[in-house]
Amino acid sequence: MKISKLLATLTIASVVLMSGCKKDDYKATVGVCPVVVSTIPADKAVAVPLSQVVSATFNEEMVPAAFTQETFTLSGTTTIAGTKAASVVTGAVTFSGMTASFTPATPLAPNTTYTGTIKAGVKDLMGNALQVDHVWSFSTDVAPAVTADPINNAVDVLLDKVIVATFSVPMDTLTLKAPATTVTVKQGTTIVPGKYSFTTTTATFTPAIALSPFTVYTLTITTAAKNALGTPLATDYAWSFTTIPQITVSALPVLGGTVAGGGTFAQGSSVTATAVPNLGYSFTNWTEGVTVVSTNASYPLNMAGNKTLVANFATGTSTFTLNTTAVNGTVVKLPNTATYNSGATVQLTATPATGFVFTSWSGDATGTASPLTVTMNANKNITANFTAIVAGTFTLNVTAVNGTVVKNPNLISYANGATVQLTATPATGFEFTSWSGDAIGSASPVTVTMNGNKNITANFTAAVHAGPLNIDLGSAGDFAVLGGSGVSNTGVTTRIIGDVGSFPTATIDGLLAGNVNGTLYMTADPIVGQAKIDLTTAYNDGQARSLDAISLAGQLGGLTLVPGLYVNSSTSGISGTGSNAILTLDAGGDANAVWIFKVGSTFVTDAGTSIVLAGGAQAKNIYWSVGTSATLGTNSIFYGNILADQAITLTTGATLYGRALTRVAAVTIDSSIITKP
User: Fold this and answer.
1) Which end of the chain is more exposed for a tag (fewer CB within 10 A), N or C?
2) 564: left (phi over 0), alpha (psi -120 to 50) or beta
3) Are the CB atoms for 216 and 201 separated by under 8 Å?
4) Quick one: the chain helix, strand, coil %, rounded to 5?
5) Residue 96 CB neighbour total at 10 angstroms
6) What is the DSSP letter of 520?
7) β partners of residue 341
């Protein structure tokens, strides 16, 4: 024994000799009373790890054989449904130096209070005994809790939903990642492909492709998931949710007509699918699988689940009737026949009787315009509504072609001396020029004083602008991306403003609804088919332009081009660095200025190149008609509508303020931004 330790022992012994260790049964020598000076865990400790080895340290060396499962005990108390239950912990007891240790046979239970006891009577090397039981307690760590988004049993979950589990305490992320089965998302027994990501408090799952509509998915987190102290979940945590139902509509044959009403809808909502036959076809019925579900062109249904509907059309022209009703006035039909072929148009003109004014259409037509054009795709019943003019008042009729006029206030009739403000707004491609009839001048708005019945016309003329006429994109103009053999995307940062689709090959790879601010067509929808037809018309128009053509250089970087038609029978593009990497398009202050670039073969821009608009130039008025394929370089910036015969490729980070429309091949995108003008 070292001198210092001996002196300490003698000092303690002298104290004990003075106080006595009276309950010792060892009489030969009176020595130091053994006492417990510290424990692990400490008394009243909380959040103790489940793997904890429990120990007690004495003030002196003890007889190792004195420590057994009878003299060193550990018991636990848990509360279940308001009732406390006690249990004795089994394990191995060892003694080394001045410390007795209790190693549980199995991990401690979470959220449990344990009591450690060293029995009185265990002795030191001189035979002095512990005078009273030493008792202390501690509480184990609480098992992690989980909250989920979507919540358990949620319905109408969106198909691009990112699934998140949030933990109540920091977790050991390694236990979430491995084994791979700790966190899983399944549809039935099938694992859903996607990407998992973890933080200390969350587990996130992003599906690789859109979830299936009206389908039950289950996410499970097993007890292999542990917190930072090694405490696992108390039990496997599992929850389920159901995605939003979807109605899919299509037409057979594809050219037979158009259909509307598809999409995703809340469960139980009311939806109407509408079929409109093309000229030369007639609507037959709606089928779901092999079952005929309706013979009405407008089919109302309740979204109790997924619906896959086909509008069936037959060749041959159907005929429909048009009945009009008019009280206090008349309606003229042009042409006026007993029946009309499917797709025919009829012009209706309402004429009020004396003392009345025409106000609106109702029934199978709405609005206040007269004449009104009606497309005959079903039997129609239309009423012209007239209202009596108040005595002593005057009427104000306004006519506007290629524009609109707003009356403020907008009344059926006006008192003598009342004033009305008229504001003219031209349609796209037109300009307001003047008033005629009972008003004159070119100011808009104009104020009219009602001192009699008045008939006023707003006159609009086609806008004159620099460069060639615009190319009419038709319904293809609704699309930011339109392919012929699919659309492929790489990178989650891709953002597209406008519709996306492909026809006849409708494959969409790597795009989720969250990437698209518009309609993402995942099937060969007839709407996409019509857009492809309109694209072909627009492409052919661009390739046919020749009037006042200007030679287009093979390298456009460093140039400033005014509006016009530019033609290169071979290839062209933008390359270079610095100012030679920039093409400037200057409208000279004309916001309606048009550029058409007709390229016989390929068009390629290098990495980092850009187009700059000046003088009020607008992307919507710029057209790139490319004979084969177009490629936009990495991180390049491009303006205009690309109409390519073959493929279009946007390499990593390319930005397009315009449209990527290709007739035959695919559109390939990589972490790009495309904004439809």
Assistant:
1) N
2) left
3) no
4) 10, 50, 40
5) 10
6) B
7) 319
What does the pLDDT look like over 494-547, one tens digit per residue?
A: 999 999 999 999 999 999 988 999 999 999 999 999 999 999 999 999 999 999
AA identity, residue 427? A
Which structure tokens are listed for 583?
Answer: 């093409």
- One fold for both 3-140 and 146-243? yes
309: how many CB neighbours lie within 10 A of its CB? 23
Closest CA to 378 of 321, 333, 335: 321
Query: What are all long-range contacts of 515-523, with beta carbons under 8 Å and residues at least 24 apart?
Result: 515/489, 518/480, 518/676, 522/210, 523/248, 523/250
Cα separation, 220 vs 653, in Å, equals 37
Alpha-carbon separation of residue 112 from 76, 84, 102 (angstroms): 6, 10, 17
Contact 207, 177 (CB under 8 A): no
The CATH class of the 3-140 domain is mainly beta
Q: Does the structure show a pLDDT above 50 at 370? A: yes
Contact 310, 293 (CB under 8 A): no
Q: Tell me which long-range contacts 204-209 makes (C-beta under 8 A, separation of at least 24).
A: 204/162, 204/163, 204/164, 204/165, 205/162, 205/163, 205/164, 206/162, 206/163, 206/492, 207/160, 207/161, 207/162, 207/163, 207/512, 209/512
Contact between 136 and 43 (Cβ < 8 Å): yes
Q: Which residues contact 189 (CB under 8 A, 6 or more apart)?
A: none
What pLDDT shows up at residue 591?
87
Contact between residue 163 and residue 185 where contact means Cβ atoms under 8 Å apart: yes
Is 165 in contact with 203 (CB distance < 8 Å)? yes
| DSSP reduced 3-state for 236 | coil
Residues 522 and 510: their CA atoms lie apart, in Å, by 12
Task: List 113's β-bridge partners, or say none.
Answer: 77, 139
Q: Both tokens of residue 73? A: 């005990």
Task: Evaluate if pTM is beyond 0.85.
Answer: no
C-alpha–C-alpha distance, residues 459 and 134, integer Å: 104
Q: Tokens 């690309």 correspond to what residue?
A: 642
Cα separation, 504 vs 506, whole angstroms: 6
- Residue at token pair 């001198």: 3
In CATH, the architecture of 146-243 is Sandwich (2.60)
Across the beta sheet with 446-450, the strand order is: 403-408, 418-426, 446-450
CB of 393 within 8 A of CB of 413?
A: yes
Q: 371: left (phi > 0), else alpha (psi -120 to 50), else beta?
A: beta
Is the pLDDT assigned to residue 449 strictly greater than 50?
yes
Domain boundaries, the chain: 3-140, 146-243, 246-315, 330-462, 474-675
Number of H helices, E strands in the chain: 3, 61
Cα–Cα distance, 62 to 323 (Å, whole number): 111
Residue with the larger pLDDT of the pair 279 and 102: 102
**Strand positions, DSSP E, 401-453:** 403-408, 414-415, 418-426, 430-437, 446-450
In single-letter form, the type of residue at position 450 comes to M
Tokens of 530: 């019509």
